Structure formats: structure tokens, C-alpha cells
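Quick one, T. Sequence first:
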Amino acid sequence: MTVDQIPSVADRRGSAPTAGPATSRPRTSIATRRHRAFYMFASPWIIGFALLTIAPMAYALWLSFTTFDGISPNWHYVGFGNYRELFSDAQTWKSLGRTGLFAITSVPLSIIAGLGLAVLVNRPLKARGLFRTLLYLPAVVPPVGAGIAFKQLFDQNSGAANGVLNLFGIDALGWLADPYARYVLIMTVLWTAGNIMIISLAGLQDIPRELLEAARIDGASAWRSFRSITVPLLSPVLLFQTVTGVIASVQTIMPLLLAPDPTPAGITALPQSNYLYMMHVFAEYFAFGRYGYASALLWVLFVLILVATGLIFKATSGVVFYNVDPEAKK
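C-alpha cells:
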């Protein structure tokens, strides 16, 4: 092949097979991928929340407008009849008042006990980890187990509490009957103060040591530092414990576990001091079979919890201090 017969570069380019029109694939932005990843990981919780929370609440709302008893197909729609009966039911108001009194009493006591234990185990003590574990251990005991233990402990005939009283020549007391039943119920709340202790301990360890050292150098006493520095900086933690404590106290079922006969037939024989709002709901559901009326009671309780939570946030808006860098808000 001579030099003249060698094809030029242009000829070779022209003779090369040309590809078809390029297909442009749309690119997924980083934000879209992040959104997809978020919903993929959050979907189990979202599905569970919809099926196990939203759906039962909607079903209970529908039941509250009916006379359904859980068994008989002969039920009918009564509109707001259950709610009208609810507001005129003396037992409802009495149980609600007892529940409010129980919340006002038990929540501050449990917060004070948990904070006191947190301050104690936050000190440089020997075997501090062991003490923290032992104090927190009652909080992991299931409520059913704790209820059975307290029921046996305060039994009038064979309980250890009356056994101790007998050593001092004191007659046995009916701890699980009026008027002592309410005190046993409060003891069951204080029994789980280790849960509050752990949260308060985390808040105490988040307080800057420089502030406490500066107060000590200025001559402030330990109580003054605790009152002027520790408590204000712990106010978000205390607010959280107050809200969750109120919600837990109005929904407690511990009186049922302490009852002599924890069955639907024996729920109406509870001591009056322990016949709280949830006990009234339990009785209407399972003792009397009034599913519609009990569902109305639950929805009223839900609204009351929302109102109480809003009032707590409103009342504490000026006394809760958040340790946040002002630049972080920009």
C-alpha cells in the first residue's frame, strides 16, 4: 500500500460507525435520595404508628358514639349521648378528682426523689457505678411484678410491713384498704424513681463545671449553687419529667394490680381512694361491657391530657432555660 492509498484521519472518522442518539437518564438529586432514605428508614415506625395508634384511636372515637358492648350485634348510634352522660356521672367526676390529686402528689415527690438520688450518685463516691445500678434496678422491674411484690409486702395477714409493725407492738394495718391504700400507691411510684434519677443524672453531668467553680470561688454555698445554677440549668429536664409524669400518673393501672381481686368482677370493690379515672374506664369496659361509654371516657381523658400539657408548657415558659448557643439558632 502506497502513501497515497492510506486513508486520512478524516476519512477514518467518517467511515466509523456512528452511535444512535444518546439517551439522557434523569439524575436524582442528593436531596431526593436523602428524602427517600429517610422515609425508607422511618416507614416501619410510620406504619406501626398508623396501624397501632391512629387506627385504634379512630375506632375508639367511632365507638364513643354508639352503645356497642363488645359482643351483641344489637347496638345503635347515640351521637353525643355518651358524652352527655359522662358529664353528668358523679363517679366520673370523683374518679377524675382522685386522679388529679394523685398526679399533684406523686409527680413532685417522684421528681424530688429522683433528683435527690441523682445528686447523691453524682458525687465522687467509691463503687459509684454499683450504687447507680442498684438504684436504677427497680425501674426495670415490670409493673405487674412490682404490683404483685407490693401486694404481698403490704398484705394484712402475711405482709412484711405488718411484721415489722408487730415487732414494735403495733397492730396490723389494712394497707390495701382505705385510708392507707393511697399511700401504698404512692410508694409504688417512688419505687421507680431510678428512671428519673438516670435522666436527672444526665442533666447534672451536662452542667458546665466552670459555672459551679466560679460560684464556689465567689463564696456561694452548696445550696445557693444548687438553687441558682443547677436547678435553672436542669429546668428543661424537670419540664420533661413533669409532662411525662403527669401523663403516666393519669394513665396508671397500678391500683388494679394492688386490688384484692384484680378481675373485672372485683374492680368495683377497689378502695375508693384508689378508684382512679382509669379504674373507672376499666370497670365500664370489662365489668359492665359498655364499650361506647368507656371509649368516650378515654377520649375525654385524651383531651384533658392535651390541655394539661399545654397549660404546663404555658406556665413554665418563663422559667425554663435552654443551654443553647445563640449562634446555633441562626
